[in-house]
Backbone:
């Protein structure tokens, strides 16, 4: 090999290695919360400290919902505050919509037009509606029209650990497959679903994504990917409710291929917003 070819070959290899290293450094956490939890102090009350903690752990992009969206009725104020808190940071705001409130369609408009949000995060159990509610279908259709991703939080925590005065059951996912077959352009991501829920109801939905925050068991992510499509699983830590390191350990204990790892770390999330 002459000098010129050696330099060209070495440069190409170096560039490929640098690109691979840059890809490996990307990490999108699709499931965090910001602000004060209504039931306990968790560590996301101080935005700057929370962002710094995520950055130290290698997170380059985080999708943040607001704890205030669980119980407050002034959804417009919640979303406005969240958008302001996320502006200019690694945090991507996920707007709260409560379709049981009057004029909730205007809240969707504000999220998209006023705040430039691409993601809506729903809490049906805390907002006292189920997936059979006609407004849920209307919301999915509206989200498809605006190319919004819907994040549906199945549960915030196990019922056994909840305050007995405010005990909230998980969302019943049984109606979801039929609804998604009906509204094929809607895109829904389940947050905090466990393996039992997935096996019973939703594995066959082509327009459904999943985070692994509540997928438990040794090699849980590896085992999940034996039946769940690789391109529909994303990294979700559920920080600060869960210790962020638990999400990292779930990946480390699973034998994932480089392609699977890249898909879960950032590729699938990026594709959803392009």
Residues:
């Amino acid at each position: 090999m002459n000098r010129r070819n050696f330099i060209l070959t070495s440069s190409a290899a170096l560039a490929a290695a640098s690109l691979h290293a840059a890809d490996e450094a990307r990490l999108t956490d699709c499931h965090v919360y910001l602000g004060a939890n209504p039931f306990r102090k968790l560590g996301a009350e101080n935005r700057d400290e929370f962002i710094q903690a995520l950055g130290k752990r290698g997170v380059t992009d985080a999708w943040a919902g607001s704890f205030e969206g669980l119980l407050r009725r002034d959804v417009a104020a919640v979303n406005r505050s969240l958008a302001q808190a996320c502006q200019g940071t690694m945090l991507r705001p996920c707007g709260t919509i409560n379709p049981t409130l009057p004029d909730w369609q205007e809240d969707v408009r504000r999220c998209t037009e006023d705040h430039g949000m691409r993601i809506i995060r729903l809490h049906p159990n805390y907002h006292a509606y189920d997936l059979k509610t006609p407004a849920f279908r209307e919301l999915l259709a509206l989200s498809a029209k605006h190319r919004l991703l819907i994040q549906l939080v199945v549960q915030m925590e196990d019922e056994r650990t909840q305050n007995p005065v405010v005990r909230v059951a998980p969302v019943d996912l049984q109606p979801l497959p039929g609804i998604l077959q009906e509204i094929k352009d809607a895109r829904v991501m389940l947050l905090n679903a466990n393996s039992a829920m997935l096996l019973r109801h939703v594995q066959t939905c082509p327009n459904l994504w999943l985070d692994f925050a509540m997928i438990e068991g040794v090699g849980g992510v590896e085992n999940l990917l034996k039946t769940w499509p690789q391109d529909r699983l994303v990294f979700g830590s559920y920080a600060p409710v869960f210790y962020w390191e638990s999400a990292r350990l779930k990946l480390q204990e699973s034998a994932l291929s480089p392609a699977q790892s890249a898909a879960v770390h950032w590729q699938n999330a990026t594709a959803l917003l392009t």
